[in-house]
């Protein structure tokens, strides 16, 4: 079994890659730069981990990824679209520049779409394959100081539905996972704020999420537990999605 995990060098992506390796997958990790964590995985799972440098916003990098997967394996069983970035600077939506918008959506939205499009033919070769798109609770939660991020994650929801509809006849299921407040490098700068909100009850489960929480959801999909589902959303958010009075 072969998987691609974009943005798999650290954080949620690294946790996903590690859990997939534990259940026997060969894993192609992509990121703009190789982290020490990715190097450690390569050593631990020698011959099962393949690092491909890739900025998914760049067409040439995406094509290099497609060529590597096709040339090395000739097939793909699982694509995990995890790569994504936060705003370089949190700005009110009245102050976001076109450059701010493009920088973020080129990776989170455009990159995700075209990675999926480019790897779809390899996924379609199999009797059963799967795509998992990692979005965010920001897909439906308005944060006016990082509007471009929310828009990009909402767009991933539609990418999920579009490819679910298009690829179903080929046995490809497409699942969206929406993490909530997860303890990663991306949230480290606002960790104190999030811990205060959680203590005040913003989520029914009274803790920040961990990368492995998201990874476990991906593993469930990878093992075929959601094979009669496509276009489906899994909320991995400590219950944030629950509306309460």
Summarize the structure.
This protein is an alpha/beta fold and 245 residues long.
How would you describe the overall organization of this protein?
It is a single chain. By secondary structure, the protein is an alpha/beta fold. It has 7 helices and 7 strands, in the order E-H-E-H-E-H-E-H-E-H-E-H-H-E. The chain has a 7-stranded parallel beta sheet, sandwiched between helices. The longest helix is centred in the middle third of the chain and has 27 residues, at 98-124. The protein starts with a strand and ends in a 9-residue tail after the last strand.
Number of helices: 7
How many individual β-strands?
7
Instruction: Indicate the low-confidence ranges by residue numbers.
Output: none
**Largest sheet: spatial strand order:** 3-2-1-4-5-6-7
Query: Globular, elongated, flat, extended or rod-shaped: what is the shape?
Result: globular
Q: What does the radius of gyration come to?
A: 17 Å
| β-strand amount | 15-25%
Largest sheet: 7 strands, parallel
* Element pattern in H and E: EHEHEHEHEHEHHE
Please give the alpha-carbon distance between the first and last residues: 46 Å
**Roughly what is the average pLDDT, rounded to an integer?**
96
Structural class: alpha/beta
